[in-house]
Design a protein that fits this description.
By secondary structure, this protein is mainly alpha-helical. It has a single domain, classed as Arc Repressor Mutant, subunit A, CATH 1.10.10. A two-stranded antiparallel ribbon has the order 1-2. The relative contact order is 0.18. The model has no long low-confidence stretch (mean pLDDT 93).
Length: 105
């Protein structure tokens, strides 16, 4: 198991860099993933996607399908990719602290 150290915090991650424990999520994790994804500044739109993903995961135990993410946030898929260049599954879910999605997010 690998670890990531960033801004004084240590995070355990899987082979793809996703948090092993959802409860380890912290603002420092968001900043770390933001930097690795090449995102300069987090906007309110980024935060809206992250908050929705976290809320959905807490209620359902899985990441939402991308069409649900798009519908609820009001962002077209193209815009989600503009916000998270590696996509909703890799970038957004990783930043939100969710496990690596197996479905179509």
């Amino acid at each position: 198991m690998a670890t990531v150290e960033f801004e004084g915090k240590t995070f355990e991650v899987d082979e793809d860099g996703f948090l092993l424990k959802y409860e380890d999520w912290a603002e420092e994790w968001v900043d770390y993933v933001k930097d690795t994804e090449g995102i300069k500044d987090l906007s309110d739109e980024h935060k809206k996607v992250i908050e929705f993903l976290r809320d959905y995961y807490e209620k359902n135990g899985i990441a939402p399908m991308v069409r649900i993410l798009s519908k609820v946030t009001g962002f077209k898929l193209k815009h989600i990719y503009e916000l998270f260049p590696s996509g909703p599954g890799k970038g957004a879910c990783k930043m939100a602290g969710l496990p690596k999605p197996t479905g179509c997010v």
